[in-house]
Structure formats: C-alpha cells, structure tokens
From TrEMBL:
SUPFAM superfamilies: CO dehydrogenase molybdoprotein N-domain-like, Molybdenum cofactor-binding domain. The keyword Transmembrane does not apply. This is Xanthine dehydrogenase molybdopterin binding subunit. It comes from the Bacteria. It comes from Janthinobacterium fluminis.
Length: 781
C-alpha cells in the first residue's frame, strides 16, 4: 500500500480487464475454503433428514412415525401439521409445500422431518416411517400432461407477422418433432442449511444458496415471524448452476422449522441420492415444428410448439418457458413466427433453473430445424445459418426480435466469420468428407453453431442490486454485495471493480459472505447478471468514497477535485503523490465518512407478459463454436476430437475467469446433450439418482484440442466497464457437438436423410438414429 507510482504509470495501471486468479483459488486447492458443512458446529447441534414419498401421486391416509421416534438417537419428528407459519416454499406461485400435507405429488416429495443426534442416525430413522397411501393416477411425461391439458400455468404464445399465410406460400417446408432431455445440476456441494436459533425469535441460517433474500422470506413465513428476525448468510457454494436459486428454500425452511421447535441448532445436509430425488432439474422439452423456407434456405415461416416438464409445481417454470420462447430465434431473424410453450404438470420433481434457464432449450430447436433445411437442400448448414442471421443495423433491416426488441449490438456475422477462418472450417469439412468416404465404420462429423443470449432477468424488477464498501483506517477495504459466490468468480470481479475505483491492487480488497442483514432485498445471483448488477452497485459505493477522499485531498493539497487520480495504490493530487493509506488516515481524523452503500438498477428494461413484447434484455452476448467428432457407427460411442470456441465477453473484467466459465459451460452443456440421462421407471421413481447411473462429463471427456478464445468487443450498453455476462450463454456452445454427431450419423446415408436424433445423444440414441437413417435411405432407394 505504500508504493506511490509515477504519473507515467497511469495509462498502464488497471485492476479490471486483467487476468486474476479466483479470490479463493488457493483455499479451494488447499481444501481450506469453508463451505457450509465446514463451519464449526455449535455445541448441541442436531441433524435432520427428510422422510420421502414412495408414491408419485397419492392421498396420504395416515403417517405412523412411531418407529422413527424410537430409532437410535432420534430427538423429534415433524409433519406439515407442526408448521406454525405457512407451509410453502414456492418462489412465485404458492403451490409448493415444504412438507406434503394430505397429498403427495412425486416420488421423493418430503413428508416429514426427523431430527437426531447425528446425520447418519437421522437418515436411518427417516426410512422407518409407515405411510398409508391411496394411490391416484400419475402423469409422468410432458406429452401425457399436454394430452390431459394439465399445466402448472396457462400456456403462453408469441406471434409476429402472419405465420399461416407465409407457410402456405413457402416453396419448401419441413416439419418434425424433437425431444431434449433435462439435466441434474450436480453441484459438487449438495443442498445444505444450518439453522441456529438466536434470542427473541431470531434465526441465523447458514445456507448454500444463490438467493439469500428469498431464503430469508421463506423461513420467516414458515416460522410466522417478520423478515427482520431472520438472517441468511452464504460465504460460498460448491456450485449452484440454478439448482440453488429457489430450491435451497425447502432445506432452509425444514432446518429452521426444526431449530425453532427445539431451540437448538439444526443442520440439514442432503445426501446425494436424496438431493437428486427431491429437487428439480433442467426442464426436458418436447417440440413439434413446421417451417417454410425458400430455395436458398431462408426461413419464411416458423412455428414451434414446446411442452416442457414442469413437474408437480410451478417453481420458476413460467420465467424458464418465457426465456425459451425468447430464445427460439437464437441468432436468426424470423419474420412470420408462432412460438408456443406449455408447462406440463407431471408427477415428478418440480423443475427449476439450470444454467441457461430455458434459453438453451429454446435455441436448440431452431438449430435442429436449420440443420434439417441444410440437409434437405444439400447445403452446408453454416451457409443456411449465415443466410438467416439477424441484420446488423437498420439499413440491413431484419434486426427486430419476435418479442419486439431491436438488436443494436449484433456481432454474430463477424464473430462466426472469424471462427470459421480460425478453425479452418471449410478445409476441415473437406477433410471430414474425404475421411468418411474411406472409413465405413468410423465416421466424422463437423458443425459450427452460433449463440445469442439475452442478458437481464426477464422479470424486470429483479434487475437491481446493492453493495456496501468499507474503507478501514489502515487503508484496507471490505466489500459486501448482494451477489453470491458459487465458483463463478463474482467476488473476484466485484473486488476488482472496487479496487479499480479506489486505485488499489486487488490484494487490498476483501469480500465478505453474502448476508441479508447487510444488503437487503437482493435478487438471486442468476440470469448471468451477478457481476453486471453487483459490480455496478459496488462501483457506485466505491465512487462515493473516492469522491469524498478526492474532496479531502484537495482541501489538503489544493487543486481541482475533478482531476484527482487514484491509481497504483496512491492518490495523485495537484502534483503530490500521496499513499492511499496516508490520505485515508488524514480523512478519518477529519471525520470524513469512509464507507458507503451503493445501488444499481438496470435501465431501459420493460416487458409485457401478456403480449410477450418489450425490451426484456439489457444487451445480448454472442458466441460460436466448431466441434469435430468421431463416431463409431457399430457401438454408438463417440469422441470430441477438437473444439474451437469464440465468446463475446465484451471488455472482459477478468479474462482468466471468463475463459474458465466458457470452458466449464461448454463441457457442462455437452454433458446435457450427450451423456446425462434422467430416467424415471414406470412407477414414477427417478432411477438415475446418483453418479453410478447418471453420467456427467469427466476430465477425460474434454477434447484434447480445445481452443477457447474471447472475441475482442465492447459492450455498446454502459455495462460495468463495458464487459458482458459470461455465466450461462456459453452453455449453448456445445450445440456444435450435438450437431457434429448428427452430421456424422447422416453421413452413413450420404446426407440424404435427416437423422431423428434426440438429446441426450447417448450411445443407444445414436445407434437408433443410425438404424433409422439406414432404413429410411433403403426405403427411398
Ligand atoms: N460457475 C460455477 N463455477 N458454478 C456455478 O454454480 N452457475 C452458473 C454460472 N457459472 C455457476 C457458474 C449460473 S446458472 C449462473 S446464472 C451464473 O454463473 C451466475 O453467476 P454470475 O451472474 O455472477 O455470472
Ligand atoms: N434467469 C434466472 N432467474 C430468473 C430469470 C432469468 O431469466 N427470470 C426470473 N428469474
Ligand atoms: Mo442461473 S440458471 O440463472 O442460476
């Protein structure tokens, strides 16, 4: 802190835009980072487990907990009747009981809480209940829900132009269907809450959550107390991926209910199997489409009907379906279009947020359609994609989305051209074709897919954030903000922003745990907006302190406050170079306030949910990827040989962290589209509830040749240092893997037949598609 720089350094000095290690990287690697379960337990701490429904849909006639209560170490057990406040943890619609009361709606739904002296004793006891059910018919697939008109919300639709007339006029049409599976978040740290009673109705909840404020409210309602009695704290999560946006609530509420009854600290840590049986996942989608196009492959009319598996309750399915509708266009202009989405009510886990939040599911449908069109016309899919890209400006036109937002930052044309060149796409296309001609069993496939992703919560009021910055007398800085750290690096970025504003190295700034008693009414850290919103709020706070310090510096050294510079850990004022710490000490003695709050609300957003029109997004993030795969057509096994990725992070706040986000999302999305398969048996039980049966990608699934780069761009919006969000959009990049596999499959019949390939493209699914292609081709011949 005591190394004042020279004016010559000013241009070179920056705390943002530089690659910096994650603030907890060392702690992560050394095993010293504290997750909720690592926090030392208070004396008298008890452990809870949940008793789960064995039926997908049934009336509960009786619950006999006698054996549970007699089990070793058990202290108490609670059912819905014991809840003093409201028995609900639904984030939007109140259809989400904490504990089932009278009716169970899926296998795995919690019915009771058992509290014991140890985690293991609680889990063993939870299995000893005797529940009498009267079974009811269960709906287990979204298609069945649609057939029964059984929805958790009214279906939605977005229309522009005159689809029917355009479709009838179109010289070519393609119709089809597609199903895309769901995905388990598989955060490495499972759901956990540790509830500690405080005096006079108070409760401190240490919770692994993306949404501390929502947890505060759910716990307050469940306990029947005001929010100011409840404090929720989260230092970090071992991953959230959307799974802790709303669904940490059940665990926070259950632990708090038990803790408040017993007046003792209660920890509820979900075992992996319970976590997967109880909580919702990414929504699986089923699509029917009918699209008209011209001889060049330009889309003239597009209609898609999507039905998604909402599960038994609404949870976040409404906004997820909305985001799917608003991402069906992906990077393409659709003049005459009808997009429908319906949230099928099924007797399964209530599906929820997962990285991309419906966006990936919306966009993959149009990519599938374009892939069909290309094959029908005997063209390279990249040419059809390019032909349909949004226009770049008003002169080009074709630059308004179906929901009415004008696109003013389109870089997909340049970005995909740059990637096409740097990946040697055309040369490799020829090489793939040559390889396939001479290789009867092993087939290669290649695909380039683009992405455009809207950044902002699609519920406008959620786009706000707050922060607190403290400068202590020794010159060290503490920042608290409403965002939560789940590994994505939000704290590092916010620390960089604060450091930059005060002209300090990042080492002088520390971030604290997220805490509802520090910043109130925070939004979930979600929609990839964490750094955008909280970075701006923290910048606002730091700027106020900086302005006070600048004013004080002018008092001491003269000059103009507007040209006081803060960089290189020093304040540069009227020809003087004063160490930051020295000025802080002088300001303190002069009674200058050295801490501040900050606030940010994203401007220009509006949205009408009835017409599905408006300006829901602050800006768009763009990217593209090229994947090359090798498929064994006898076994369905495949390998990703090479992936080239280009992502638009604007002026990246931290290129090291952003590259990590892009790589991670790519591999996670590849898992979704290829190996991760959720499977419910005929009795409605999810059978893939552990890593033994549910295959997430491993390190060996990463391509040996993985070329990930950031696109050089500036956000045209005044975002934090002109950066762009990076958390979710790159999950769409591995579409290229899926379509490369489809390309390899289609080569078995000379690309004459559209392979009916559903996601996940497991080995079985690949073999099925190969068989279908071969028989269709034989039939046509
Ligand atoms: N990265 C890590 N390591 N762990 C996570 O849980 N969640 C993703 C993404 N990247 C996640 C992650 C999701 S779903 C979102 S919305 C964003 O991070 C949230 O953080 P941000 O808004 O600060 O980018
Ligand atoms: N993403 C995540 N969470 C949300 C969103 C979104 O777009 N909208 C409302 N909650
Ligand atoms: Mo991310 S799915 O918005 O938590």
């Amino acid at each position: 802190m005591n190394h004042p720089g020279t004016p010559a350094l000013k241009a070179a000095w920056a705390a943002v835009g530089v690659p910096r290690a994650h603030e907890s990287a060392q702690l992560h690697v050394l095993g010293q980072a504290t997750y909720t379960d690592d926090i030392p337990e208070l004396q008298g701490t008890l452990h809870a487990a949940l008793g789960l429904s064995q039926k997908p849909h049934a009336k509960i006639l009786a619950i006999d907990l006698a054996a549970v209560l007699q089990a070793r170490g058990v202290v108490a057990a609670y059912t819905a009747q014991d809840i003093v406040g409201s028995n609900d943890c639904g984030p939007i619609i109140h259809d989400d009981p904490i504990l089932a009361s009278g009716l169970v709606q899926y296998v795995g739904q919690p019915i009771f809480i058992v509290v014991a002296d140890s985690h293991d004793n609680a889990r063993r006891a939870a299995r000893l209940a005797s529940v009498t059910y009267e079974e009811l018919p269960a709906v287990l697939t979204p298609q069945a829900a649609k057939a029964a008109h059984s929805y958790v919300l009214p279906p939605m639709q977005l229309k522009r132009g005159d689809y029917q007339a355009a479709f009838e006029r179109a010289p070519h049409v393609v119709t089809g269907e597609l199903s895309v599976g769901g995905q388990e978040q598989f955060y490495l740290e499972g759901q956990i809450s540790y509830a500690i009673p405080k005096e006079d109705q108070g409760m401190l909840v240490l919770c692994s959550t993306q949404h501390p404020s929502e947890m505060q409210h759910v716990v307050a309602h469940a306990l029947g107390v005001h929010a100011h009695n409840i404090t929720v704290e989260c230092r970090r999560m071992g991953g959230g991926f959307g799974g802790k946006e709303s669904q940490s609530a059940l665990w926070a509420a259950a632990a708090s209910i038990a803790a408040s009854k017993l007046k003792r600290p209660v920890k509820l840590r979900a075992d992996r199997d319970d976590d997967m049986l109880v909580t919702g996942k990414r929504h699986c989608f089923y699509y029917e489409y009918a699209v008209g196009y011209d001889a060049d492959g330009k889309i003239l009319a597009a209609k898609v009907d999507m039905v998604l598996r909402a599960g038994f309750s609404a949870d976040l399915s409404g906004p997820v379906a909305t985001r799917a509708v608003c991402h069906f266009d992906n990077s393409y202009y659709l003049s005459d279009v009808e997009i429908r989405a319906a949230c099928g009510k099924t007797n399964t886990q209530s599906n929820t947020a997962f990285r991309g939040f419906g966006g990936p599911q919306g966009a993959i449908a149009i990519e599938y359609i374009i892939d069909d069109i290309a094959r029908n016309l005997g063209r390279d899919a990249l040419d059809i994609r390019r032909l349909n890209f949004y226009g770049r400006n008003d002169a080009e036109g074709r630059n308004v989305t179906p929901y009415g937002q004008k696109i003013v930052d389109n870089v997909i044309v340049e970005l995909s051209a740059e990637l096409e060149a740097s990946s040697a796409y055309r040369v490799r296309r020829a090489a793939v074709d040559a390889f396939n001609r001479s290789s009867p069993v092993l087939k290669k496939g290649l695909a380039l897919t683009p992405l455009k992703f809207g950044i902002a919560f699609n519920v406008t009021h959620l786009n706000q954030a707050g922060a607190l910055v403290h400068v202590y007398v020794d010159g060290s800085v503490l920042v608290n903000h409403g965002g939560t750290e789940m590994g994505q690096g939000i704290n590092t970025k916010v620390m960089q922003v604060v450091a930059h504003e005060l002209g300090l190295d990042i080492a002088h700034v520390r971030a604290t745990a997220t805490d509802t008693s520090k910043v109130a009414n925070t939004s979930a850290t979600a929609a990839s907006t964490g750094a955008d919103l909280n970075g701006k709020a923290a910048q606002d706070a730091a700027r106020q302190i900086r302005e006070r310090l600048a004013a004080h510096a002018v008092k001491l050294y003269g000059g103009d406050a507007a040209v006081v510079d803060f960089y290189d850990n020093a304040v540069h004022v009227n020809g003087h170079v004063v160490a930051f710490t020295e000025l802080v000490q002088k300001a303190y003695l002069a009674r200058v306030q050295l801490w501040s709050d900050g606030f940010y609300a994203t401007p220009h957003l509006h949205w009408d949910p009835k017409t599905m029109n408006g300006h829901p997004f602050s800006y768009f993030a763009y990217g593209a990827a090229v994947s090359e795969v090798l498929v064994d057509t006898l076994t369905g096994e495949w390998k990703l040989l090479r992936a080239d990725v280009l992502y638009d992070a604007g002026q990246s706040l931290n290129p090291a962290i952003d590259l990590g986000q892009v790589e991670g999302a790519f591999i996670q999305g590849m898992g979704w589209l290829t190996t991760e398969q959720l499977w419910w048996n005929a009795a409605g039980k999810l059978m893939t509830h552990a890593p033994s049966t549910y295959k997430i990608p491993g390190v060996s699934d990463c391509p040996e040749d993985f070329r990930v780069r950031l696109f050089n761009n500036q956000n045209v919006e005044d975002s934090i240092h002109r950066s762009k969000a990076v958390g979710e959009p790159p999950l769409l990049l591995p579409f290229s893997v899926f379509f490369a596999i489809r390309d390899a499959i289609s080569s078995v019949a000379g690309h004459r037949v559209n392979p009916p390939l559903n996601a996940p493209a497991t080995c079985e699914e690949i073999l099925k598609a190969i068989a279908a292609v071969e028989s269709a081709d034989a039939g046509a011949a």
